[in-house]
Structure formats: C-alpha cells, structure tokens
Design goal:
2 domains; 5-stranded mixed barrel; 16 strands; RNA-binding
Length: 456
RNA sequence: UCCGGGGUAGCUCAGUGGCCAGAGCGGGUGGCUGUUAACCACUAGGUCGAGGGUUCGAAUCCCUCCCCCGGAGCCA
C-alpha cells in the first residue's frame, strides 16, 4: 500500500477489491493512491479537514474517506475564480481540486498536491466541532458530524472489522445465520426491561432483548446456528457499560455442553482479536491502544467456578454472600492483574435466567458462564447450556412467574426430540470498546441510544 | 431509581455578596507565498439553566423544578 499521506494509514482498507473486479469506479482519484502518482495531474474530491491561509498561499488538508493529503493553493498558480473559491473554503466544505502530485519534504508525509484548479462544491460555515476539547454532551449532540473525525473513523472501521470477523468465524464453521424477529410477543429473559409498542389488534408488541429463544428451535433444524442484530433493553442504566439499543451475536449449538460452549467462546474471541490485529493495526495505533495487551489474547483462558470465585473474593476483602450475582466491584477484583479474559461458570440458579440447565453435580447452580474481559471491561459474554428437560423448564417458568402461554412454542423444542444444546451472547459494543480501549460504549456504535438520548 | 459533581459567550472554562460579568478558542474585518491546533492587529458576541425567595445589592446565599456528567443496581 502507498504510504506517506497525512494520517492516511488509518484510512486505508487492507482488503480492497482490485479495481478491475469492482463496478465502483470513482470519478476521481482516491487520496490513498496519490503516492503512486507523483508527477501526474489528478482530480480529487473531498472535504476540508484543516485549513491555514497566509495571504497569497493556503494549505488545505483534504479528506476523502480513503486518506488525507495536504493541498497547496498558491495565488500565482490559480486563476481568479479558483483563488476566490479558496477564499470561500472553511472547515468541512466539500471541494474538487485538480493539481499535480508532488513529493515535498516540507509536507507532512512527503506527498502533497499542488493545486492548479479549485472548485467549491458545498460551502460550510461555522462548523461546530473545533480542533480542541469538547464536552461529551456537545459531541453526542453532533454525533452525525463527530463521525468525520479521526478517532471516530478508526473506531467505526474496527467495529466493521469485528463484524466481518464474527460472520466469517461462523461461516467457516458451518453455522447458519438465522435472523430472529425484532418485534416479538412477550417473550424474553425477564419482564420490566422491554420496550413496548402498539401492534394492530394483537395488543402490545415488544422489541427483542434476545434472539435466543427463537434460535433454539432453529438449532434443532440446522444444528449450528447464530443470529446477529440489534437488541433492546429498556433498563434505566446510566453507566459506561450500557446502551438501550445494542448489537448482540448469539450462536446456538446442538449437542454442545457447557464445557464445549466455553471452548467455542474462547476460540471465537481469539479469532476476533487476531483479525483486528492483522487488519486494523493502524486504527489501533490511531486510538493509542496498547497493542501488546491484545496480542496476549490467546488460548487458553482461565476457568473459575462461581463458588471458587466467592472464596477468592472473600480472601480479597469482599463481603459477598453465596447466591448473589457478581457486582462490578467483584468483577474488578477477579480480573485485576489478569491479561486474558476469565471464565466464571456455574452460577447460583436464582441469579440467572430460567432457561439455564440445572447442574446435576450441584442443583443449586446452573450450567452457565460469563466471560469477563481484562482491563476492567467486564462481562462481554454470557452463555449457558439450556435446560432440555421439559418438566424442569416448565417448573422454572412458573417459579419466575412468566406468562406460561407465551412460552408454549418454546417448550415444543423439549416436547419433540429434546437434545442438549448450548449457546451464548456476545455484546458487540462491549467487544469494540474493549478492543479499541474506549472508556464508554457510546463511542462504539455510530448512533448510540441511551436512556436520555434518541437523537441524532 | 439511589448517591456524588455540575449548568456563566458558538465551544472549553475562570469568576463564591458590591463598578458597565472575564479569558482562550471559534466568528467578522484587515495583513502575511511553506503553514502544521499558523501568526499579528482590530472587532462583534451574555435571559450567568428556569421560577420563586433573602438582601440596600445575587452568577455568587436559600427553596422548587429542569437538564448534563460520573458512580451504583440491572445486564451484553
């Protein structure tokens, strides 16, 4: 790949389709190609990223999505119309520049464009985001513009890479993608956190908070399946680890037990991290991510039972009692000093969802696990072997006070050829956040939805 | 929902009882042919979150409400 454009490394895709195979033929030269075009006259289109003017000479840094380059506009090289156009430019104006690609040591990166003609395409004035510190509320109010800036572009590209890694991982292992519904009847993990909406004559519909219950029947049809899409939780959470709309990938595998489930999770997370390290290293550098922390993410991950975790927590001064779910502080105590994710498995039944399989060795617990990411990123995966005994599952549904009639079709999976099966859910934004080293989930998704944010 | 911090110019903030409320950045005008968050000069810009109260006098003290940030719980 060409090098030398201003900060352009982070904008280059490492997976570009050869031009002759693509029907997408840009009208103009892309900035990432400039280093191979020294001496030639080209036309660029893009946006003014930075701008400095010195009377009879102006320096623009132009961004086109493939890279950035400094454009030098000298009065003597331009006609009156072009020079007037330069005078009208401001941050984020769009423009068309024709000029000669030059090698120049004074230019950051060594290549610049000496403008011969400049045309203003779309003016921009009083662009709100300045090259200085801004408050998070202001930035989120301008999220649609904030996306244009360096860190955000890097995050979006890492997110995209992770999504590709996820789909490729499952495709390569013969999983079938099952798209589960977003509008559902009252079915999910627990009431009280569902978004509601009117649904014709059928009363209330709810936005899905998991695809799992729809996935289990599909596992009986296809063996290995997964779903990947947005899910919704109406929890009034105000923390760096929660969004009301987030993306979750959920595999479900027939004939897989809890131990195998953890092995799958370990392989999965390692594959994601490894692919980002392979293909998005420049973005990680732009994000100031400590790459050695990611390079340490290789199998195996330690596995610790919930009961052992409680003992360790007691040793470390916690007063948690057996039976309670682990809190944020407990997770921190357990993952402190670890460089890899940690599995905690076999939680108490009361702390977990109704569909998790009872543990034969200790019926107070269920066959489940969480995966806790290092560096304080907390739970990125929750998984379990599912209860495959019809009567035990029905009993649990009744104990939880869930509407039995809503789960009738779900119980059919146990009525007609029940089978051991397991699965898990990985939160995409938490994973993006961890891999990018972000301090809040809201930057890990293009348009975050939170308790008090629905716009833009 | 609970606990803590905050709301002053477009942005980031200073100002904690007393002249017409300040700075930097941004905006405008002028200058500058090698700038790197360019620089220099001049300039415009405010319902001090809202409402009520105390006081001779309130951005500053008190009450109510609204909004934002951080944390907890819940979870991915």
């Amino acid at each position: 790949m060409p090098t030398g454009n201003v900060a352009s490394v982070s904008d280059e895709s490492s997976l570009t389709l050869p031009a002759e195979r693509s029907s997408l033929r840009p009208m103009n030269t892309e900035i990432r190609d400039l280093a191979t075009l020294v001496g030639q006259t080209v036309t660029l289109r893009g946006w003014v990223h930075k701008l400095r003017s010195s009377g009879k000479i102006a320096f623009l840094v132009v961004r086109d999505g493939t890279g950035m380059v400094q454009v030098v506009c000298a009065r003597n090289d331009l006609d009156d119309a072009a020079w007037a156009a330069v005078g009208e430019l401001d941050y984020e104006a769009s423009l068309e520049v024709e000029g000669e690609v030059k090698q120049d040591e004074r230019s950051p990166g060594g290549v610049e464009l000496l403008a011969g003609d400049v045309r203003l395409v779309g003016a921009s004035s009083d662009y709100p985001i300045q090259p200085k510190e801004h408050g998070i509320d202001f930035l989120l109010n301008h999220r649609h513009l904030w996306l244009r800036h360096g860190r955000q572009r890097a995050i979006l590209r890492v997110r995209d890479e992770i999504i590709h890694a996820i789909r490729e991982f499952f495709y390569e292992r013969d999983f079938t993608l099952i798209d589960t519904p977003i509008l559902t009847g009252s079915i999910g993990e627990s009431a009280g956190t569902l978004f509601e909406t009117e649904y014709f004559d059928l009363g209330t519909a709810y936005l899905a908070q998991t695809g799992q219950l729809y996935l289990e029947p599909a596992a009986a049809a296809l063996g290995k399946v997964y779903c990947f899409g947005p899910t919704f939780r109406a929890e009034k959470s105000k923390t760096r680890r929660h969004l009301t709309e987030f993306w979750m990938v959920e595999p479900e595998v027939a004939w897989l037990d809890s131990d195998g489930n953890m092995a799958l999770q370990e392989e999965f997370v390692c594959a994601i991290v490894s692919r980002v390290l392979d293909r998005r290293r420049a973005e990680l550098v732009e994000l100031d991510r400590d790459i050695t922390r990611l390079e340490a993410i290789v199998p195996p991950f330690d596995r610790m039972s919930y009961s052992d975790a409680i003992e360790i927590l007691h040793e470390r001064g916690s007063d948690i009692t057996w039976g309670a779910d682990l809190g944020a502080e407990d997770e921190t105590l357990l993952t402190e000093g670890r460089e890899k994710p940690l599995f905690v498995f076999d939680y108490p039944r009361e702390a977990k969802a109704f569909y998790m399989k009872e543990n034969a060795a200790d019926p107070r617990t269920v066959k489940c696990n969480d995966m806790l990411a290092p560096e304080g990123y907390g739970e990125i995966i929750g998984g379990s072997q599912r209860e495959d005994d019809h009567d035990k599952l029905l009993k649990r549904i009744r104990e939880e006070g869930l509407p039995e009639e809503s789960y009738d079709w779900y119980l059919d999976v146990r009525r007609y050829g029940t089978f051991p099966h397991s699965g898990f859910g990985l939160g995409l934004e938490r994973t993006v956040s961890w891999i990018c080293g972000l301090d809040h989930l809201r930057e890990a998704i293009p348009y975050p939805r939170m308790m008090n944010r629905l716009s833009p």
